[in-house]
Amino acid sequence: MADRPWWKEGVIYQIYPRSFADSNGDGVGDLRGIISKLDHLRGGEGSLGVDAIWLSPFYPSPMADFGYDVSDFTGVHELFGTMDDFDALVAEAHGRGMRVVIDWVPNHTSDRHPWFVASSSSRDDPKRDWYVWRDPADDGGPPNNWSSAFSAVGPAWTLDEATSQYYLHSFMAEQPDLNWDNPEVEAAMHDTLRFWLDRGVDGFRIDVAHKIGKDPELSDNPADIDESTAHEPERRHDEDWDSGHERLRSIRKLVDEYDDRMIVGEVYLLDQQTLSDYINTGDELNLAHNFVFLHQPWNASAFRDTVEQLEGLITPLAWPAWFLNNHDHSRVATRYAEAGNGAARARTAALMTLTLRGTVFLFQGEELGLEDVEVPSDQVVDVDGRDPERCPIPWEPPSAAGAGAGFSNGEPWLPMTTDAERVNARVQSEDPGSTLSFYRRLIAYRKATPALQMGSWRAVAAGDDIFAYVREAGGERLLIALNFTSEVAHLDGRPAGLDGAARAELSTDPGRDGDEILLHDIELRPDEGVVIRLP
Ligand code: GLC
User: Fold this and answer.
1) Which atom of ligand 1 is nearest to the CA of 68?
2) Which pLDDT score, from 0 to 100, does residue 510 have?
3) Would you say residue 1 has pLDDT above 90?
4) Count of domains in the chain?
5) Has residue 1 been placed in a domain?
């Protein structure tokens, strides 16, 4: 086990710094706030026990996209603190045995980044070619039909009046795309990686990793693209170009000059074949976020097929990774809720994610069963409707800590959940039946169970209502059975060769832990997930 990299067994917890913990009362979370809450994550009594944190951007930024518009790749925004605070955070995390992964945003910069300021200053500026500039089409419109990932933005091009050319932005106009076809850009971005590696960070989450390779001809995208099938032959031209793989190889080589580091890519491609190309050769990304999994409906067959497909596609050089929540998507407790069962389904979803084969990414707040927060229209700040999942973490009941619920003494930048009296870390810590206590048990169990960390995975036939699989390592065999319905469901293990009596070791329903289970008729409670130790 010793030669297995830390991130393979790891549970990696995403912190969205603006919304985690605010130490200075300005309503926005900060690095000192994160330090003050590290006990929640690891090292403190009853902590979650995660292995690493991934920090969403904390760099200087005009905040058009709340930090994903970076104006200095090697600084700390004063809203979040100072470089000393960052170093202290890394030291504190390391002191608890936790790694620190940071977000790296290579596809674009802020329009206020000095590189873009220079690039847009004139057609002859030495940095002109650091971004993607083109003359207008014959009709004066944008050079091609590419559109921004944000539907509210529309075309991926904005005309710069001063120099009469359009520049490319795959996201907001405030986020011009860097020109990775220019080797100077690649070298400058490599320098930013070295800067943070030298400061001791353990890895990077690469923002839109599939977008650093684009068709240099800038050809139009096909009119109707089915995102769920392989990208050939009707492929998009604004992402997933072969050159991107080459660039990721260079990044991996650089990162591997340092010990024990890891890169995970946000590869937002809705086809697992194309996704696995980013991990299968063993010299690109260590891990890739799988959005096909995240996009499944609440349906046992849908999840089974997705996991089975990925397990069938990846090579022994690749390692799976699973997640269902991040700062860009409606939270599981809301997304999958029907008739008030969101909390139950969120637990079953967590049991699934944490018992599949692979690395797990959690998003702050999911351990509390936090739901999306309704944001009144006059408080909406995000261009793409993502405020509800970004609302601040409730740490304490408002009756004890005031309206900021221990997140802030000031006015939070996004509204606090109205459930904070019940849904908060303090109250849930003290309640063995809470979602937080469930996550703690689950993560500790995963950590203590070799079959879950590195065992094989195989699906067990279980009909349309139940997703079931066996994890096995050495002599240890576990059956995981997840009921995707809100009714009692039954599983007969005999067709899969499972018979006799076994023990339920961990259930989403704590009343069940320790029960004897008869494998010829496993009864699952509504929305229940259970881990059963097989004889
Ligand atoms: C990624 C981030 C998202 C951001 C976008 C542009 O998808 O997760 O929050 O808006 O990239 O950087």
Assistant:
1) 12
2) 87
3) no
4) 3
5) no
